[in-house]
Amino acid sequence: MILGFIGTGGITEAIVTGLCVHGNHQDKILLSERSRFRSKRLAEKFTQVQVLGSNQAIVDRSDWIVLAVLPQHTLAVLAELSFRAQHKIISLPAGIRLETLSTHVHPVKQICRAIPMPPIAHGLGCTPIYPPDAEVEALFARAGKAMAVTDERQFTALGASSAVMATFFAWVASNARWLEAQGVPTDDAAFYAASVFHTLAAMSVNASAEALQRMSEKCLTPGGLNEQVLRGVKQARVIETIQAQIDGVMSRLQSAE
Ligand SMILES: NC(=O)c1ccc[n+]([C@@H]2O[C@H](COP(=O)([O-])OP(=O)(O)OC[C@H]3O[C@@H](n4cnc5c(N)ncnc54)[C@H](OP(=O)(O)O)[C@@H]3O)[C@@H](O)[C@H]2O)c1
Q1: Whose C-alpha lies nearest to ligand 1, atom 26?
Q2: Which residue puts its alpha carbon closest to atom 33 of ligand 1?
Q3: Are 92 and 67 in contact (CB under 8 A)?
Q4: By alpha-carbon position, which residue is closest to atom 11 of ligand 1?
C-alpha cells in the first residue's frame, strides 16, 4: 500500500516518524515537496520516503492519500486534484465534515477523518477516526492507539477535548520552575515535575470517570495537603474554566463545520 501525503507540515512529519520508527512501516510513503526542508529531512531519514514535485503526482501514485494541509487551504487544494474510485482518503483538517469532503473528492467512496496528535511521532497517543475503518485504525494503531467512532459529533468532541496540550505543558513547566526556585537543580526539577504527571497519567489509563473520581477522593486526607490544593483549585474554578474553554473549542469547530 502506497501512502501519499498532501502537505508536509508538522503533523505529517509526526505521523511519518511514528510509522517508520515505531510502526515498522515498510511500504512506500510519498510526500509533497512543500515544506521543502521537512520533506527533504524525512527522505534523508527514512528510505521508504520519496518526495514528488506535484500533488497530482502523489495522488496518481498512491493507494491511500492523507490530506494534511491547513483547513483554509483544503478545498482549493482538492479542487485541483483528480482521484480514482479505488483511492482511500484520510482527512486531517479540523472543521471539514465528511459530507463536504465527499463532494470534493469524486469518485472516491472510502473517506475518513482522523485526528493524530504530535505524540504519534513517539508511538504514543490515541488517534480518533470517523467513521470506523478497520484498515485505517490498524495503520494508526501501529504508532500508538486508534479509537473509531460512529458519530461525527463524538469525533469533533474528541478533538476539542484534546486541545489541552499547551495548557498541560505550561502547567508542568510552571511546577518545574517552582521547584527550581526552591533550589532543586534544573534537570532534577523538570524530571521530577514531569514524573509526577507521568505516574498519575499511567495510573489513569483504562480507569472510568467514576474510578478517577474515587482516586481523587482517596487522595483527600482531611486537613491534608492534597485537600488544601484541591480546595484552592475549586475556589478559583480552575477545572470549570478549562471545561468552559473546551466547550468554546467545540462550538468553534462545529460552526466551522
Ligand atoms: N498539528 C496537529 O497537532 C494536528 C493534529 C490533527 C490535525 N491537524 C490538521 O492537520 C493539518 C495540517 O496541520 P499541520 O500542523 O501539519 O500544519 P502545517 O505545519 O502548517 O502544515 C501545512 C502544510 O501544508 C502545506 N501546503 C500548503 N499549501 C499546499 C499546497 N497547495 N499543496 C501542498 N502542500 C501545501 C504547507 O507547505 P508550506 O510550508 O510550503 O506552505 C505545509 O507543509 C491541518 O488541517 C490541521 O487542522 C493538525
Answers
A1: 7
A2: 7
A3: yes
A4: 68
Chunked into runs of 10 residues, the chain (257 residues) has average pLDDT values of 97 98 96 90 97 96 98 96 98 96 96 97 97 98 97 97 96 98 98 97 95 96 96 97 98 91
List the chain domain ranges. 3-150, 165-256
Ligand 1 centre to CA of 102 (Å) is 20
Cα torsion angle, 165, 167, 170, 176, sign: negative
CATH number belonging to domain 3-150: 3.40.50.720
Name the residue with cell 526542508.
37
CA 123 / ligand 1 centre spacing (Å): 20
pTM above 0.70, yes or no: yes
CA of 129 to the centre of ligand 1 (A): 18
Fold of 165-256: ProC C-terminal domain-like fold (1.10.3730)
Q: How far apart are CA 135 and CA 104, in angstroms?
A: 22
